[in-house]
Amino acid sequence: MDFLIGRQAIxxxxxxxxxxxxxxxxxxxxxxxxxxxxGNTATSRVIINAFINMGLDKIAxxxxxxxxxxxxxxxxxxxxxxxxxxxxxxxxxDVIAEENxxxxxxxxxxxxxxxxxxDFVFLEHQKQLVELADIIKIDFLELSKKExxxxxxxxxxxxxxxxxxxxxxxxxxEFALNLGFHYFQGFFFQKPTIEAKRDISxxxxxxxxxxxxxxxxxxxxxxxxxxxxxxxxxxTKLLSxxxxxxxxxxxxVNSIKKAVSILGEKKTKEWLNLLYVSKLAExxxxxxxxLSTVRGKFASLLAEHFNLNKDKAYIMGMFSLIDxxxxxxxxxxxxxxxxxxSQIKGxxxxxxxxYKKLLDFIRAYENGDFETAQGIAEKTNLINENIxxxxxxAIEFSDSIYLI
Length: 404
Hints:
The protein is α/β, with parallel strands linked by helices and 404 residues long. 51% of the residues lie in helices and 12% in strands.
């Protein structure tokens, strides 16, 4: 596979996931020399890989997928090969409203495709594109707040949805929300809102206590059975999980003891970490726990290439956003988890070690900074095909949890 493919979430006003922008980059012939593949060929190959070879559901079972379209891809009507109910044609900012472009996009609209304009700034000669668009994406890093407000005035006469992209802070999100933006893309939801005087609630304390038991190296299978049996939600959830198509069991399991026996101690702890962290994140955007789950699984799959323990890597990924989930400093939260390995704690606190190297790789990858990711992985035996396979396996794993 010639490409690295990732995705970045787009949330609605309620924090629900509306869709994902497809991120990709053609392979470097070296870390410093980019290959000669042009944007048209790159997008065409990604479409073939992502939608035909990988399968649409591996990218996103739910929500829309935003795909960049160059001028030539619009003229070639590549969109006709893609499902109209699933994709958004994202017209790149350098596409001009020429007659043949407008005709192709009009045909796309007639067929029922959704059209978004990327990094758009209103100009009179681009007015026809605005008239055809369903969504306008406005870059919050490129424009000042005053310029954004001025742009919005120009879009009021049109029936458009507004998407704020590169929203990096809670302040920017609130600003966009107050201006009436419908969708939001960026890292704002991954960042904790620290309130010094806010304590962990009794409910959260109960969940943290359970997580302490799960991650205690001295806890036994009987301890896990007792923990699950005393929690009706976890009792129901774990049985639903074990009986789901994900495990493919021929006979139904009705006993927690039997379920734990089938999973084994390591797998049971892995799933319980996931389920309890999910419970902690109930009041947060679902994408936060989806991202935590993807990170956990992705880290465990990558671990052997970094010569790391896969179980520890899983915990690191799962806990990497726990500060955002609880809105508390990471250092304070980790004091509650005596039994988490010191190397994992170090990585989560930003101290340089081999686990932090893996976490840096994952963060770069999910941000679409594939050059940095490849630079980190330079001394491993990772290849693009491995990385894509692991990443989409992690997404599939996450989906298997939230669709039960």
